[in-house]
Each structure stands twice: as structure tokens, then as C-alpha cells.
Amino acid sequence: MANTQLHRIKTISEYHQFMGLPKPEHPLISVINFESIKHLPAGRSINIVFDFYSISLKRDFNAKMKYGQQEYDFDEGIMFFMSPGQVFGIEIENGAALKHSGWLLLIHPDFLWNTPLAKTIKQYEYFNYSVNEALFLSEKEETTIINMMQNIEQEYRSNIDKFSQDIIIAQLELLLNYADRFYHRQFITRKITNHQILDRLEEILAAYFDSDTLMKKGLPTVQYIAEALNISPGYLSGSLKTLTGQSTQQHIHDKLIEKAKEKLSTTGLTVSEIAYGLGFEHPQSFSKLFKTKTNLSPLEFRQSFN
Prior knowledge:
alpha+beta; five-stranded antiparallel beta sheet; 10 strands; 16% strand
């Protein structure tokens, strides 16, 4: 799929035309039944980026879908949330006809203009997870989401009046909040995956702190850790919060304090030397963080061993 041409689709009308669908009934929002899409317009494989939000619920999809760095199968109902500018790819095996069921909700940012959701939609973390983590739904959850999508479709297909946008926005917020609930459930139920992430995080931090990278580049960033784990920063944070109650930054700081305690208790290095060795430009910044975490200054901690 690496050599597949990228198709950028700027409007919902353009998407309908691209996929051979009738013109949308509303230019800024559309609900599409996937069964009405019979083929990929670009042949066996396609990469697409939208300039609008998309929320899709897919099942029984006989193609490979690459989303970030993962490929998915569709034996279960799967939801994907994509913000404008994210890329996904689809590839069908040679000789196979495109087959899938489910629903697609497209929302152009202009539809949200001058509404509170225009700002708050970016706070739903799964729009960040989407490039790496899909939402797996139970049949009951699928039914809930489909009903809400169909309610939105029914509203914009009716006569548009001054209440229409407010009603659709309210229904969209309800759908997003249900998805939030389902994602939280997924974090809790997929403990094995999350524990593997935690174990790998510990390995990455240990290797980083045991190398000279710390002195050269300072503390690892959340972005660095997420990229090393091949997941998004938002998904990493959500997983760690569910498992440990702490953010990624707090885990990094905990590892730093652990390393500092080791040096303070087993070496004769000065506090300044330890601070520089741990990537701090200013020893006072190290001392402040150490005291915040331990209620002791580095010297007080060292003296407690004497």
C-alpha cells in the first residue's frame, strides 16, 4: 500500500461523487450505509485523507484497512474516529469484490462553526487514538450507535429549519459521549494489552535512563515514548491512567526520581553533578522536582542514609 496514490477529499459532496454515491442531501453532514458503496474508485487499493471528521462503524469488511501502523479485520463491529488530515488505506485482494456493512457519519468542520462542539470535539481523545486504536463494539453497543446515526440522518433529511442544527449537534454530542463510555470500557477490559504497554514503557524508560541519551537530550518527551511504543500519546495516557492513575509524564518523573535516589544513595556525586547527569540544565530545577516528589531535598534524602 506504500505506493498507492493518496486522494485528498475536501468536501462531503466530493466524497459522494468519488464513491459513486448520489449527491448528499446536506452539504456539511452525511450518513452513509456502507452497503451502498460497491467498489473502490481507484482499483484494488486506495489511500484517502479527509478534510472533515468521519465516524465509521464497519462489520464484515473483506478488505485490509490500514490505520496508522495497524491493520484490522472486521469479524466484530469496529468504530474508527478520524479528524481532518488523518490518512487511512484500503486494499482488496485480487479477484475479490468489495463487501462490507455498517455506517459512516461525515461531519464538515463548518457544520460545527459557532457551536460549543467546535471546540470540545477536539477534547474527545479517541480522535487521537484513531490513528492507532479502533473501538471494538458489542452487538448492543453497535445497535446504540446505529440508532443515533440514523436519528441524525432522519433529522437532516427532514425539512431543515432553525432547530435542525441544534438537534443534530445534540445527537452528535450524545453519540460522542456514548463512544467515550465504550472506549473507557475497552481500556478496562483489554487489560492484557494495557499491561504489555506498561511493561514495554518500563523497558523503554530503563534503557533511556541507563544510556547517555539522558545527559545529551534531557528527559524523554511523551511524544518520544508514544512513538517508541507505536501508539498515539492520547492512547498511551488513557491506558496508563486506567491502569495506574498516573499520566505518562508522571511515569517519566517517577523513573527520574528512582534514578536520582540511586545516585544519591550509592555515589559521592554532588547534587549538581547528578542533576546534569539526569539531563537538567539547572540543578535547582532538579532539586525542586525531587522535593515535590519526595518531600525531601536531594541533600536531605542523602543525609537520611547517614
